[in-house]
Specification:
Blueprint lengths: L1 H46 L11 H8 L19
């Protein structure tokens, strides 16, 4: 009985070490893929150039586009529960 218990425990420990080793391999392969992706994204970001139209930015025109933001929203009808407030 004790021998069977010890053998079972040894099998569990062996399985745990195999699982840990496979996890480490997975982490190593993931790190390699991530570092390649990060390098690719950094390279793409370095190649991005700002758009140059040659005209100065008119802040009034930008402000005018966003000043009417809430004009498209309708007011909600009064709540039927407003008497209970």
């Amino acid at each position: 009985m004790l021998l069977a218990h010890l053998l079972n425990k040894a099998e569990i420990i062996d399985a745990n070490t195999e699982l840990k080793a496979s996890k480490l391999e997975l982490v190593d392969s993931t790190k390699g893929k991530l570092s390649k992706n990060i390098a690719r994204v950094k390279e793409q970001a370095d190649n991005v150039k700002p758009a140059d139209t040659g005209k100065p930015v008119d802040k009034k025109s930008i402000k005018g586009k966003h000043s009417n933001f809430f004009a498209g929203f309708r007011r909600l009808p009064p709540s039927p529960f407003s008497d209970y407030d």
